[in-house]
Amino acid sequence: MSGGALRWVPWRSTLEFLRQNRVYDVRSHSADSSPFLLIANFSRPSPSLRPENKSPKSARSARPTKPLPLRQYPANLTSMPQKVVIIGGGIVGVSTAYYLSHHESNPSVTLIEASSIASGASGKAGGLLALDWHGNDTASLARLSYQLHVSLAEQFNGRERWGYRELTTLEISCTEGKAPSRHVAGVPDWLREGVISKVGNLGTTQSTAQVHPRRFCEAIVKESKNLEVIIGHASKVVLCDDKKVKGVEVEFDGIRETKIIEADVVVVAAGPWTSRLLPNIPVSTQRAHSITISTQTPVSPHALFTNIKLKNGSLATPEIYPRTDEIYACGDVDKHAPLPKFARDVKVDEGRCRQIMKNISVVSEILEYGEITAMQACYLPYSEIGPGPSVGWVPGMRNVAVAAGHSCWGICNAPGTGKLLTELICEGRISSANIQSLDPGRYTR
């Protein structure tokens, strides 16, 4: 499967597609050989991202702080888990699946996703990675995760496969229709001459980088060992009378009855949909719009955080991320759009997308005359208590873990989250970073 293309198709045509491409071992999951329960067996071993601090450090020299454990194994988990089921095919779920599948204890790993891999925010994010922009609660996680992004890119040719590269990250300011009073140094040559009034350095190539998040997710799924992927809606975490997990109830399009996928451990990494499965883990959400642009002229790898005072007196703060083959730009979040049942049902407000294009055109003629190649929207997950995500065992349940609420830092911090959850599940304690303040038990204190 190395280097093979991965396409996701409607479930009705999944079996035929997999047979034609001969890249999966497809079999029925149920005893009655239902043709609707298909498993793909991978047999191959806006809120702003602006930093909380700006002290650059080398990714290779960064050291995690002394680790502190979360909780030990639940009392009933006295041996290595044989079967782990992950709910959510975004970057956190995919990263967790990857590290679990490569752990020496060799658990069986199943990933359940309702739409397709990276169908939500993980496929529509900007993909910025930052080493040292994080607060105390997530700084250790971010350092670990940044290092893992570097090592994964080196190990699996991430520069070619998912657009990994180092960036210089700048903050720029300007006023629409007004030239600055003096010359400003350090302005990238693809921005309008005589428009930018201020340039600040937020990150160097030693402290900021980028990935194309959807391509990253698809590649890491391929690099997982013996990973089973089920396309279906995980509607319920099923518990026994003693609150020990039994499995996950899954619904499939066109089928009335549900199936229970049994598990020793369940990981809920469902992003903004997490609270629908775990009501005691409050995760809120906001919609964010973005566009991708094709330009005739290549632009330098400078990520831009902008402050644009418009003619009407309002302030626009779009973020611009040049990629190797396109330019990505995103705008402000929308707090009033309700979360749909599935990622595939997210509504896109084209007016908001066109406003992003209009705003970034103020700073760049190259962008102004570029072609919009995608208008898209997604929902970002936020933990309602504390500044960081929830990562660890869910209180009140046995053998159920959660990893959700990463906000705009999900792409950056997903590999570290996946590695730490693997340590917690397979080794009983977290040893590679200090995320004690992210313990989901904080919701019960």
Structure description:
The strands form four sheets. Strands 1-2-10-4-3-14-22-21 form an eight-stranded mixed β-sheet, covered by helices on one side. Strands 7, 8, 15, 16, 17, 18, 19 and 20 form an eight-stranded mixed β-sheet that branches. A three-stranded antiparallel β-sheet has the order 5-9-6. 47% of the residues are buried. The longest helix is centred in the C-terminal third of the chain and has 18 residues, at 410-427. Helix 2 (91-101) packs parallel to helix 6, helix 2 (91-101) runs parallel beside helix 10 (410-427) and helix 4 crosses helix 10. Mean pLDDT is 86; it is low at 1-47 and 53-76. With 445 residues, it is an alpha+beta fold. The protein has two domains: 11-159 and 210-282 and 384-444, 3-Layer(bba) Sandwich (FAD/NAD(P)-binding domain); 167-209 and 285-383, D-Amino Acid Oxidase, subunit A, domain 2 (D-Amino Acid Oxidase, Chain A, domain 2, 2-Layer Sandwich). Strand 21 (390-393) and strand 22 (400-404) form a beta hairpin. The chain is 21% helix and 29% strand. It has helices at 11-21, 91-101, 121-124, 139-155, 158-161, 213-222, 274-277, 350-361, 365-368, 410-427, and strands at residues 25-28, 38-42, 83-87, 108-113, 128-130, 165-166, 168-175, 196-203, 208-210, 227-231, 233-239, 245-251, 259-262, 265-268, 283-294, 302-309, 315-316, 319-322, 327-334, 371-383, 390-393, 400-404.
Total separate domains: 2
N-to-C CA distance: 47 Å
What is the number of beta strands? 22
Q: What's the CATH class of the largest domain, please?
A: Alpha Beta
Query: Rg from C-alpha positions?
Result: 22 Å
Query: How do the strands line up in the largest sheet?
Result: 1-2-10-4-3-14-22-21
Helix/strand-derived category reads alpha+beta
Mean pLDDT across the residues is 86
Largest sheet: 8 strands, mixed
Low-confidence stretches: 1-47, 53-76
Give the full name of the CATH homologous superfamily of the largest domain: FAD/NAD(P)-binding domain
Task: Give the overall shape, derived from the CA principal axes.
Answer: elongated
Would you give the CATH topology of the largest domain?
FAD/NAD(P)-binding domain
Going by CATH, the architecture of the largest domain would be 3-Layer(bba) Sandwich
